[in-house]
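Question (not urgent): is this output format expected?
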Amino acid sequence: MQLITSPFRELYQDKSNLIFLGRWCFSAGEKTSQEIIDYHWLDREKFKNDFDYLNKLISKTNYQLADILNKINNTSYSREFWYLIINPWVSMFVSAVYDRWESSKKAIELSKISQVNFLESEKNLIPNDFNDYLQLYNDHLWNHNIFKDIFEFINIKKINIKYIKKKKLFKKPIYKKKKLFIKLFIDKIFSLFTKRKHVVLIDCYFSLLNFLKLSLSIRQLPRIYSEFYKDIQLPKENNDLRRRIKLNLNSNNFENFLSSYIPKNLPKSFLEGFNKIIDEANKIKIDTNLIISGNANFPTELSKFWCALKKENKTNLFLNEHGGSIPTKYRYYDIHTKIFDKQISWSKPKSKNQSKLTPSKLIGFEKVKLSRKNLSIITLETSQYAYYCQNLQSSIILEDFKQKKKFMENLNSEKINFKIKSYKNMGWCLEEKYKKFFGNKSITKKNVKKVIQESKLVVCTYPETTFLESMISGVPTILLYMDDIWKFDDSFQDLINNLRKNDIIFSCPQKASQHVKKIIDDPKKWWDNSNTIKARNYFLSECGSVSKNWVKEWKDFILKNNDKT
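Got this back:
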């Protein structure tokens, strides 16, 4: 049989004697009776073992790269400096390549593939920086080339590799920078009035008004730091330089491949462009004792390099969590905790370097004016290709879709009307699928906050930020999720049991629809029941809530950790 790894029609003449590597090989809505290999992380025991394996491998990769890049760039920075610079890319790239390797390996182990077809395409472009890389991981041609490189490396004698001329040009993914002209102009004006030493808040997910309130409370102007958005032209790739990267990740065949593959894909900002970005970062004269960032990836490469330099000089660097709900077990690799001095969490702290504060992103949801009209179902969509080893990845979302579809069909059979708030299209076109089954009128285009505001009952279909937003708003809310896919932190098991007992969370679509049928005429009656209120309050105390005095809460935290504010 011939193996097809990608959705390009040029790869085969007809569909006879074919086997497809994954659901991503088909365009949205395309019906097929072809054999498709099951996604390897549907095996949840394998998923857990792979997370543990990648956790160790990513630490080892960061460790070795830090030493190698210090030597090549003729620097002597700490390993923590390099972790901050390279880990966002290392964690995602190693996870992604391992995922493609395991999918390929599973196909090979079927022992019925005699040929695999690939396009005669150019090699993948080397990304300039991490933001550039983010445009690649869900691109079909980029992934097609990775599969090709894997099969060429493994070189199984019984499997013939056939190369096919491509008939059309493919658009190369381009990183689109945010248009911030007006904000950057205002920021430059504010920079003229900024006191010499102040707290640097980077992408902390406050609304404009709330950001202003907090900034003024600590006696400084709100800034987005136009200095970090300078356009830097990086040098071309230098293959001689890249050949000097000698990784020793040789515990197995995948690590042999990875050791040779990382030097060919390492962003230029870590190598050819490193000194240029360091020079620009050193020119930024912002004086601070405390930096709080709302994203471990940072908005620009220059801001990340500047933060790394400041941290090297003993400036405190904190991470403000920008998403959450009930903490999940498989979310971050261990190295994530070695980068930041302290983390601001939404949920109860799990370690000494965590502090629980009002979630900056959710301030205002507790004051939403409710009109209580609709039963709203808020859904999820994930990228077609996995970028990390975490709960819901790649084609597992199609299993999730089946669960939600069954739930909605149950509501339809009871003549219960609902509105669907779909997630943005990540390649699976799930909104179109919902339209096909439940009609165009079932879809709402309003934003999540407006959807919650207009709901008498919200059904959230994934246990992340949106679920917490809805719970904070006070709108009657239930969660329907796949409990075999989403695994929560063990310390929250009592909370999970309590929410189940009080019919707030469900993993069975039948039970969830029966509960909706029971309460739909007056969801508020159930929501304001004393037991339900206790469960709601328990959830908010454990997972995140908005303090009435959130400005003072944040101000006191900043003052405590920055004695020169």
